[in-house]
Design goal:
Belongs to the protein kinase superfamily. CMGC Ser/Thr protein kinase family. CDC2/CDKX subfamily. Belongs to the protein kinase superfamily. CMGC Ser/Thr protein kinase family. MAP kinase subfamily. It is a single chain. Among the domains are: about 5-80 and about 420-440, Phosphorylase Kinase, domain 1; about 85-285, Transferase(Phosphotransferase) domain 1 (Transferase(Phosphotransferase), domain 1). Helices cover about 40% and strands about 15% of the residues. The chain has helices at about 40-45, 50-55, 85-90, 100-120, 165-170, 180-195, 205-215, 225-230, 245-250, 255-265, 275-280, 305-320, 335-365, 380-405; strands spanning about 5-10, 15-25, 30-40, 65-70, 75-80, 85, 120, 130-135, 135-140, 145-150, 430, 440. The strands form three sheets. The chain has a seven-stranded antiparallel sheet, covered by helices on one side. A three-stranded antiparallel sheet has the order 6-8-9.
Length: about 450
């Protein structure tokens, strides 16, 4: 920690406090999370869910963990610095956010959630305080409660702030999935539009009452598993009809209301996944390319045989650069297709070059007089000219054959196949700034005496 200077405390949570700091060597501003619990070995540090999950993720909308430091049995996480969080932007704001701003933020969050869920993790603690913003870029932070999707239940009962907690968790279900993140996103979206929490319950029972007052009481048809969970803990749902979300958010579009309604469904199976949410009509404009950025179709004078292939290429470009509202999120533009398009372009140029060569050769042959045949001799200039001409023609034909057989390969690495970082080892300090994410040995510190601490409920 001698390389960093702590400037100001910017947040305090259950498990640690966050400080704004600066790297003394590079001058970079960073966020340093100081854990409240003592850690006496590197094994304990390496096995933390926040460390394990963040080391496996590299996404522009997930906060980057730069370094892990253990000093005097205190653990520090060094993150990239973000200016503020969503809660700070909302709490003192009087004017509502525009729908385009909310759409841009939510689109980025759903991309990060889709990336995270596809890699086997769900966050479990999504709330405005854990969504960090800097100049229009939003990132998910605080993976202290992150859990692997394939891990064995039972899961912990407390997973997130009450206002954004899914109903299956409120009913003390020990088996839940990444759909708890989707419920939280529905509540966060509604809060971004109204600047007020959608379900501000003061307790678990009051939270369920607030949910029923908005979306109505669940029935045997809408959520049979929820009724079984309530029956198991002797809880009876309040009988409420609910209200239309459009009445609570009159200035919000129908697409946004429809997405929030699906995200805040009683039954987790009826909530869309993050990838499905990105395909919702609410995000249709996020896939559109402005006309000023679309490529202009070049008028090319090509032979008829090449024109057919070129028209197919232009149609492919139209489909790729146009509106992608009907496209799938994980649509793969394979490198083999792009290579075939590129090789077609090379072949077209070669054909045009050969045609030009033929045009130039024809008048040259007709205009020159054919010399009389003379037996070639060793010192005959005519023989030398013929030999040199033959070599030149042979060189052109060889070059054209080599260029015609040329193929262009693609070195682009397929999506989703990113190199995995090497496993961390005990007794070392991990640094993510280098390309190989190397581990540095640190000075061994003798365990200090034990202090009593409070246990967060």
């Amino acid at each position: 920690m001698e390389r960093y200077k702590l400037i100001k405390e910017v947040g305090d949570g259950t498990f640690g406090s966050v400080w704004r700091g600066i790297n003394k060597l590079s001058g970079e501003v960073v966020a340093i999370k100081r854990m409240k619990k003592k850690y006496y070995s590197w094994e304990d540090c390496v096995n933390l869910r926040e460390v394990k999950s963040l080391r496996k993720m590299n996404h522009p909308n997930i906060v980057k963990l730069k370094e892990v430091i253990r000093e005097h049995d205190i653990l520090y996480f060094v993150f990239e610095y973000m200016e503020c969080n969503l809660y700070q932007l909302m709490k003192d704001r009087e004017k509502l956010f525009s729908e385009s701003v909310v759409r841009n933020w939510c689109f980025q969050i759903f991309q990060a959630l889709s990336y995270m869920h596809q890699r086997g993790y769900f966050h479990r603690d999504l709330k405005p305080e854990n969504l960090l913003v800097t100049k229009g870029i939003i990132k998910i932070a605080d993976f202290g409660l992150a859990r692997e999707i394939n891990s064995n239940p039972p899961y912990t009962e407390y997973v997130s702030t009450r206002w954004y907690r899914a109903p299956e968790v409120l009913l003390q279900s020990y088996v839940y999935s990444s759909k708890v993140d989707m419920w939280a996103m529905g509540a966060i979206m509604a809060e971004l539009f109204t600047l007020r929490p959608l379900f501000p319950g003061s307790s678990e029972a009051d939270e369920i009452y607030k949910i029923c007052s908005v979306i109505g009481t669940p029935t045997q048809d809408s959520w049979p598993d929820g009724l079984n969970l309530a029956r198991a803990i002797n809880y009876q749902f309040p009988q409420l009809a609910g209200v239309q979300l459009s009445a609570l958010m009159p200035s919000v579009s129908k697409d946004a209301i429809d997405l929030i309604t699906s995200l805040c469904s009683w039954d987790p199976c009826n909530r869309p996944t993050a990838a499905e949410a990105l395909q919702h009509p609410f995000f249709q404009s996020c896939f559109s390319v402005p006309p000023s950025l679309r490529p202009k179709e070049a008028v090319s004078r090509t032979p008829p045989s090449v024109g057919a292939r070129l028209s197919r290429e232009q149609q492919c470009n139209k489909r790729y650069y146009g509106t992608l509202s009907d496209a799938k999120l994980n649509s793969n533009f394979s490198s083999s297709k792009s290579c075939s398009y590129m090789s077609t372009g090379v072949q077209r140029k070669l054909e045009m070059a050969n045609q030009d060569l033929n045009r130039k050769d024809k008048p040259f042959k007709t205009s020159t007089r054919q010399p009389k045949y003379q037996p070639p001799g060793k010192k005959s200039p005519t023989a030398a000219a013929v030999v040199n001409k033959g070599r030149a023609v042979l060189g052109v034909s060889d070059a054209s054959e080599k260029l015609a057989s040329m193929t262009i390969g693609s070195r682009r690495q397929p999506l989703g196949q990113q190199p995995k970082p090497p496993p961390m080892k005990a007794g070392v300090q991990w640094n993510a700034e280098s390309g190989d994410m190397f581990l540095r040995p640190t000075q061994h510190i003798q365990p200090s005496r034990t202090f009593s601490r409070k246990v967060a409920g």
